[in-house]
Amino acid sequence: MRVIVLGGTWFVGRAIAHALVAAGHIPLLVHRGRDEPAGLPDVEHLHHERETWPDRRADFASFGADAVIDVSAGNATGARAALMALPPGVRLIALSSVDVYRAYEGMLNHRQTDAVPLTEDSPLRTARYVDGPHWENLELEELYLTAGATILRLGAVYGEHDYQHRFEPVLRRIRAGRPRVPVGTGSFLFSRVYVGDVAQAVLAVLASERGGGECFNIVEAQTAPMRLFYEQVIAAAGADLELVRVSDDRLPADLRSVGAVDQHLLASAQKAREVLGWRDSDRETAMRRSVRWHLNNPPLEWSDDFSQDDAALRAG
Ligand SMILES: NC(=O)c1ccc[n+]([C@@H]2O[C@H](COP(=O)([O-])OP(=O)(O)OC[C@H]3O[C@@H](n4cnc5c(N)ncnc54)[C@H](OP(=O)(O)O)[C@@H]3O)[C@@H](O)[C@H]2O)c1
């Protein structure tokens, strides 16, 4: 298939581009071209700012796409620009997040609002733009669903090239040779997914006979609570870092998620397993690969100030 990837060069889109090539598809990566990271697959690029896409319809049409994956719409404005530019009749896939569920709003507001696991029918948020002025997955879902797209609602994505550095609270302490890390209640359940498995979910949609206009949660089948997750990161790094239980209110700022959280964000991917035949891959292998990449590629800037750790460990 000839597949337009809207985005495709940073993290999730990059993994999708690699998976498309490995599966024999022909991708076109559409982005601004601010950065052309090393190691991208050798494929065609189209460099335009998203807001100009409606004026570039001819460029989009000339690729002769069978399918389009919007990795980076962000909100209604972004989705609208894409939908105005794309040729009619192509299969549409758009990435969203489990942040569309009301449970996410509950978590942010320290309230318990929903039973888990969250399914595609769980209540959605009523508040909008809860993560700032640029991101609103509810908006892009509304536009893309109306256009007949398949929506993939992702859990917290981890893996190679993750610019959010989800393992960093643990890895910076390992890099600094810290012997002990303070942790709190550690019971928070937040569904995760390996970036390579997100790419496989996109391939599963492309291979499916199912029409669009529906959503799928794409999350791992089993979710370690936050404290156990940290232990898994430590084990995958082959490090010796002792977790020491302290009072939640003494946790350093970057370790708050290992304190008590009122609303879990545990989602179910049963529908994707049943309808798309999608499965998440072996967790230990995914963790090892991801942690190794992050150990080899630390953030350019990171703090080696552990005074909050020392205070929490002293106070208990
Ligand atoms: N990370 C998570 O935990 C998580 C969780 C849930 C859902 N998601 C979803 O994953 C997606 C994000 O993945 P990603 O950032 O890793 O995707 P990506 O496709 O790998 O990277 C973003 C792409 O967008 C391009 N871009 C950014 N601003 C642009 C603009 N104004 N005009 C044109 N192109 C632009 C960037 O290239 P240039 O800079 O060259 O333009 C880059 O190619 C989102 O849909 C998000 O909702 C992520």
From TrEMBL:
Which stretch is the leader sequence? none
Residues of the NAD-dependent epimerase/dehydratase domain: 88-218
The family database entries (Gene3D superfamilies) matched by this protein are listed as: NAD(P)-binding Rossmann-like Domain
Protein family: Belongs to the NAD(P)-dependent epimerase/dehydratase family.
Supply the name of the protein.
NAD-dependent epimerase/dehydratase domain-containing protein
Protein source organism: Rugosimonospora africana
